[in-house]
Amino acid sequence: MRLILVSNRLPVQWDGTPSVGGLATGLSSFLSEWKSAGNEVLWVGWPGKSIPDKEQISYSEKMRNEFGTIPVFLKQKLADSFYNGFCNKTIWPLFHYFTANCEYSDITFESYIEANEEFAKVITNFYEPGDWVWVHDYHLFLLPGMLRNIFPNILLSFFLHIPFPTFEIFRLMPERFRTRILNGILGADLIGFHTQSYTQYFLRTLLRCLGIENERGIVFHKNHLTKTGAFPMGINVEQFRNYSQSKECNQIANSINVNHKNLKQILSVDRLDYTKGVLQRLNAFELFLKQNPHWIRKCKLVLILVPSRTDVSSYQTMKRAIDEKIGAINGSFGTLDWTPILYQYKGFPFEELVPLYKNTHVMLVTPFRDGMNLVAKEFLVSQDCGVLVLSEMAGASAELPEAILVNPNDLQSMADAILEAIKMVPDEIHSRNQIMTKRLSENSVKSWAEKIYIETEDAAKKNLSFQTKSISPSSDILLPKTNKPIFIIFDYDGTLVPFESLPHLATPKPELIENLKELLNFDHVSIAIISGRDKLFLETIFAEIPIHLVAEHGAWHKPPTSSRWNSLFTSSGEWKSQIKNHLDEFTKRVPGSFTEEKDFSLVWHFRNADPDIGLNAAREMLDELSQVSSNSGFFVQRGNKIIEVREYGTGKGKAALKILPNEDLNIFIFGDDTTDEDMFREMNESVVTVKIGKSETIAKYRFRDPDDVSLWIKNLIVFFNKEK
Ligand code: GDG
Q1: 98: helix, strand or coil
Q2: What confidence tens digit (pLDDT) does each residue in 51-78 have?
Q3: Can you tell me which residues the record assigns to a coiled coil (predicted)?
């Protein structure tokens, strides 16, 4: 199988030198195993600068042959507006909670769309069915949706490397941007995040922004199923560990250390970015020196800042502030033979970075917010006897609770943490680090990538079974195959008519009533409506039609020829008053919800409630009621924005069996809800069962919506007329 990795930046820069960043290095172990199993890998991305038109063909050939990379060419103006604009002035600050830094510009959003389209075009040129496409990060939110439109069956993963913010933050983005972004990511089969919290924030955002619910992290949208989940990215543990224990690494470590043998080394390594909290870290170090003067001349802070986004003016301003702060600390605390901060504004090769980790006593990783932070993990597997001071706001803190966790906004706690770390005894350091490094070895970057592949494949399989069930209402498969009498059962809400905000507004169009009447003119056709609605409602709606009506999920039955309702089940009803009080409590608590009372059941509706509050209350209610329902005479079922509490032993499935005549029939059953699954389950293989809508079903076929049901009815009429 061929893997097509897609990220904004390629693992090699335009001139062939390696890019700084965790992804390429991290993935190398997974990729080499992938390739040695006979698979191919191609990496698609922007080369980082504009390449003149006439050089593009030869450049592409060279990159593909030498590095297995495929460049996406973006004109300088577009690249600037896309990358420096929408990516780094809108998404990056917003998703890291720097809301005051955000700009919302239609111009840069247009560029964002255009750049994503350029990526889609390049992939379209060489994509082949069977390839696995794995899109990375926030620069390419729209790409999964674009690719899904072109290749409906593409195997597609998306991984977000930065945090996904809470809904309240996400919705600060104008609706026209955010809707498009969410729809774009949902084109993937799998969406991975670093932590459980980011996943939950994303799912909640889908609910609040698009009204899309999830079933245990699975989302159905536009006839496509997407799995979501937390996949904390690991590192290439062996690579760091092996090198850190090598002779070469020891030699470099000793040579770096030669002038500072007696100083405890505090290390800080970041890309220059305001999210990393570098200035705050310097302030904490200054406070530490002020409050603990006995550590003066006994420690040094090695501060490495890797240049990044150097053409953005706010980054230049930040760099100046950091430079000044370093100057001030060195000026006021330094002596002729000691400088507190050794500052390096450049990247270091791996071979020099690891010896620095190894020499370190205290590693400061204190970002204001960070998707994961791989530096913290790399340090842990490379150190000899070093303490990790880690921000609670970094995704890595969820996996590394044995580190000294700090709030980067709390200067005093950071200064205290430096002191605690620098004084920590080796036994304690080893015991803390051992637990963390063991965990890191078990969750290496290789197993991270493998899990993502397995889950993506699983989602794609689920999608396939979801799609194979989808059928056109005019398909011949849905026509009667024999001339036996025909019995059709329809659910009402969500099947014959779409949902409305209030139940009494959901009524059939006159055309539908006419078509049902016409169908019943064929004397071998019988129709039943089996609904959760009450008797009066069904009687009123279907007053003119000779049809079986079954109300309250099978509690009552009125045959076509009769004006009387018979009870299909017997009821004790003892449970009702107690449960009604309980549901009423929820109704008081959740604005927009209400309780409906029927002869054999109680229904709590939350369609008009705030989606989040409604859903949470429904979960709570389900949980509470299912604990008391056994042997209590009732059972609880979740429906479409409702919770139904019903007399035990009743149900649509049993009701359907009771009203079906005892003869050989062509049976068709249509329903949209979990209560309709009861009917599908009770029927034998010969019955044609059709689910309306997206969620999981045991029905044989699937229609998109009630309009498909109306089309099927019309199609059946045409068929019978032809047969006459
Ligand atoms: C994103 C998210 C998430 C750094 N300086 C040098 C150097 N590095 C390497 C490190 C590490 C990588 O860069 C930095 O990884 P981070 O995790 O800290 O952050 P980002 O790559 O900026 O960004 C982040 C990550 O994606 C992965 O999902 O953790 O939260 O923002 O691997 O070793 N490498 C070399 N010289 C350096 O000077 N060779």
Answers
A1: coil
A2: 899 999 999 999 999 889 999 999 999 9
A3: none
